[in-house]
Amino acid sequence: MGIVSTDLHKAGAIAVSVKDVGMVFGDVHAVRSASFDLPKGKFLTILGPSGSGKTTLLRMIAGFDNPTSGEIFINGQPVSAVPPHRRAIGMVFQKLALFPHMTAAENVAFPLKMRRHDARTIGEKVERYLELVRLGGYGGRRINELSGGQQQRVAIARALVFEPDLLLLDEPLAALDRKLREEMQLEFRRIQKELGVTTINVTHDQREALVVSDEVIVMDGGEIQQKAQPVHTYRSPANAFVANFIGVTNFIDGKVSAISGSTVSVESNGQLLSGVTAADGAPLVPGTACSGAVRAEQIRIASARAGLEGLETIVEGQVADSIFEGERIVYEVTVPVLGGAILRVFNHDPVSHLQFGPGENVRLGWNAKDMHVFKK
Amino acid sequence: MTGSRSKSIVIWAFVVTALLMLSAPTIVVLGASFTAGNIITFPPEGLSLKWYGAIAQASDLRQAFFRSLIVATICTLISIPVGTLAGIALSKYRVRFARTIQIYLLLPFTIPLIGSGIGMMLVFGEMGALGKLWPVGIATCVINLPFMIWAVTASASNLSPDLELAAANCGAPPLQRFLYITLPAVLPGIITGSLLMFILALNEFLVSLLLVDARSVTLPVQIYNSIRSIITPDLAAISVVFIACAGVAIALLDRLVGLDIFLKSK
Predict the structure, then answer these.
(1) Which of A244, A303, A292, A304 is nearest to A268 (CA)?
(2) Which residues on chain A are in Cβ contact (under 8 Å) with B187?
(3) Which residue windows are transmembrane per the record (chain B) (predicted)?
(4) Which of A146, A241, B112, B230 holds its CA 20 to 30 A away from the CA of A5?
């Protein structure tokens, strides 16, 4: 957000520019009029559920499919007429697509061989990039002799060894178990920073998007829902979809009763709740059907008599369920004044080991600025 | 657990019977070839290698054997490019009328061999090519080509389409993608198919019979001709040589690609 694209174009600082790109398969619009600019050296994540068009967009950038409308520019040059093997783009595939009949080193050497580098340069570079991905000494191994994590690293080295203008990651971590996946996320981040290569990562893992990226694009139904820095995406979702897709969010349905500046008053079941307009969202007027979104971790839970000082919205409720998850407790609280809505609350008091049980009466409180109001 | 024991006895009995039935002809021929007598009998009368000596001396058998080798080589050399490309195309690309093409490719194999044999006899006869060896090579190739295509498609269908995209992404133009990625990936299928084609062409009798004349008989036809006169143990000996050739091919296949490709092929 807030990038003045014309200035950056002049400076030649834009690596990838996607302009009104659309993709139609038969009568399915996989991608609709997507546009964004990605400055050089940045790490962009395209986040979305399956079928959101994120992979289609990535394949178009790689050159495997051509957009049915719009144009993609790489370093300022339109690339529709450029076949994939002439685009200097490295890619790590979802299933890695390592060449099974070659060793790790031969896989990494392949892009250099195709570019007709001499044998000495190839040898040196393969060694350097295997070192970079911490696989020094593993070059002679066959692909099926390597573990899942090591195969990932070979795929990264192969995608980077020819110093591409752009690195594409097509959910390469999706198949890994959680611990290895988190380790590899940080590894991607480290390598990307070390080389400064512009990167586009596609994932449906919201945590990964927040952890690794400079910028996050959220896609749904073939359309870009929001493009912003991770913190901004999390704290100021542009619409209900983004708020729901990232994090655990409670939605309280109602109607806009008053609006002044960014402060909105929402009427829900006769209650007046205070919230703020979404920073990048659709405009609201009094009377609009709307939805107030509050993150589960931004709601404080306390016993029925507690004060909850400093919180602007306070409601009474009854614990329906309480689930111990280790570092936090997840409560499901029924709130009669909000028409019996069930709110999800993350909370933990690790000092007093306090946990409310089902049936207990509690009070919930949150700040007005933490309730984002979206048009319904 | 008498139930499971009796079941396993039945199964084993079945397996042993099946194996005996399958190998009986080979055992009989093998035994008969070592006979010291002058007629084919089983069990053999005494042991000797004299009939192997006899076939080494018999120039007509030897020449027929070489002719069969030539036919099998021609057949294999033609089938490798044709079968490989057809197999890859059928499994990898959404070829228009793929099913129709597959059925068409099966035709020479499904219609009775005598029918296609007569068809080819007419065609090659018209061309004045009867009695030469290359028409036999082509004919055996046409008849058995489905085996080559099956072997290649079995390998190619295991090939992830991402591999070629990855190669493109690495900077490989289409021809290099084919040479460096697709071809090595289907190589086990090509080897399997080639050996099969070689053996099938070496053994082919019916179509050979229709296409050869007295100067160009192949080994199976030669053996058949001999049977019609007097049945001597040298026929058993040459059969054993024949079986040995097939055995060598199978052993080679197992070493090169492993026999499990047959189990995996669809």
Answers:
(1) A292
(2) 101
(3) 9-34, 69-91, 103-124, 136-157, 178-202, 235-257
(4) A241
